[in-house]
Each structure stands twice: as structure tokens, then as C-alpha cells.
Amino acid sequence: MVEFTPLCVPWERRLQTLVVLQWVGCWVSMALLCHVVFIGLLFTRFWIISILYAVWWYLDRAKPWQGSRHIDVLRRWAVWKHMKDYFPISLVKTAELDPSRNYLTGYHPHGIAAVRAFTNLCTDGTGFPSLFPGICSHLMMLNLWFWAPVFRDYIIIGGMVAADKESVSHILSREGVGNLLAIIVGGVQEALDARSGGYKLELLNRKGFIRLALMHGAALVPIFSFGENDIYEQVENSPGTWLRWFQDGLQKVTGGSMPLFYGRGVFQYSFGLMPYHRPVTTVVEKPIEVQKTPHPSQEEVDRLHQRYMKELENLFEAHKLKYNIPRDQHLEFY
User: Fold this and answer.
1) pTM given for the model
2) pLDDT score, position 28
3) DSSP 8-state assignment for residue 238
């Protein structure tokens, strides 16, 4: 039976749901809708709108590789506070970040939709600027999202940049200091293994970000979101199933993954694409000092990679009991 939401839900909770619904709608359909509108306008008397935007797009085409475009007034919108309170999301600082340094952070886990990474680093909803004054945060994401008209501008003003070496070089070398660049290391492949109560991280062979940290002398900051995998459920897609075969093939062709997930609805709790009301706590660990090495050897990369994994394990073990994770549960790297 369908379990409907009660009529007496407070207005504040309804507002939180509306904000998250907007966010889900953006990521599920806005990129496609923007393409449709952009092309469709060309065949109407409003064709000039698409032409003018195309000119702007051409002139601004390099921005995702040049540090994005932070607009603080938009990042401080009250809607992000409502989005944070929907779950709720908490941001925990374990050490200071010196604004005279640059940082490269690995964000774990990816989850289904990386909701926490967006809320923590692309908005002021959880108070990142207050916790880490003088630090400007950026979040890397798949390049294909920046090929969607209008939608690209929406994500650029939030501090999102293209997942490319050029972006890393620009932020960590050409924009001075006080920058934090976050990479969701597990990527789209890890999203296919995002399950409630699961802690599998695709990290064993993900060493590119370690090499970049060495090349630019950027301190490494492990970040882990407890509860990230719990806000959605995913259809069974274990390796060997036909669904996983299809998803892996799609990823090879497009570079993106397509998890089949479900949550709750807007007016009922039984099914839908809205995330569940489940708390998420993001812990920012103390930085790992990195000596600048313009041409690091494979041995230096491997050594720092091993240390990074150890620090991430330590973070998980030190905090897991606070967030109702069983004592015998540990991170699993693959």
C-alpha cells in the first residue's frame, strides 16, 4: 500500500521538500530540457534568443577549465539552508585549513547523485565559508555537463569545474592561494555500487589525483560523508547481472553511468525520485602535507597513495560509531 504524507506536515518541511525537488529535477531533466528549448527556439520567432546565447556560450566556452565563476550572493541563497535541513546535512571540521595554502581533496563516497558534495562545497548551506574562512571551494564534475546550454551557467556559478588536468592546473597554480579543489575520486563507476549501508570505494587504482597533488604541491584533504549512500536505494545490479552489463557498456560509450535508483515521493513515502530524510554528516580530515614534486616517480605516487588510503581509513574508524555504523564495518577498497 502507498503511504501518504500526513496533511499536518509543517510548512517548513514542505518548503524543504520543494527545494530538494527543484534540485532533483535539475539533475534528472534540466540538461536535456535546456537542449530542447535551445534548439526549439531556433524554429520560432524568438530565434534571436538562442543565437545571442550561442554567441555568449562561444565567448565563455573556456570558463569550466578556468576556475568557474563564483557568485557569492547566489551561493548564500536561503534555499540552500532548506536543502541542508531536508536530510539534514552536517559539516564537521577536524582541523584548520590555512588560507595561504592550496588543497586538493578526495571526496568519498560518490553516492547516487553526490548531493552532499554539491551542498557542502557549491553552496553556503552547511556553512563552509564560516568553518574555513579564506578558503574558496571548487568541485570537479564530468565535462559532458558543461555542454548543456544554460545548465552549464547554473553549475559554473556554484564553483563547479571540468574534470580535467587543465582545471587543476588553473586553480592550484594560477589563481593564487586559498583554493580547495574537490574530486569525487570514485566517479561514476562507484555510483553503480552505492548502496544503503555499503562502504565500497573505488580507490585502489585511482592515483591520478595523487600525482596532481604532488605536481602542484597541494595538501591532500580526505573528506568522507557518512550516510551518503543511504539517501537512495538502488536496483540490484551486482557484477554479472544483465543490468550491470548494460550500465558498464553505457559508461564506456558515454563516460557517464546510469544507476537505477529510487527513493520517496513528494506526497507519499513509498516510491519516487526524492531522496529519503536520512541524516548525512560530512567530516573534513586534517590535511596531509605534500612536497611539491613537478615530475613525481611512480614510487612517490604509490607511497603517497598508500598514506592517503590509511588516513581515510583512520577517519572512518574514528567517527563511524558516532553515526551508527557497526563496529565490525570497515571501508572496502577496490
Assistant:
1) 0.92
2) 76
3) -
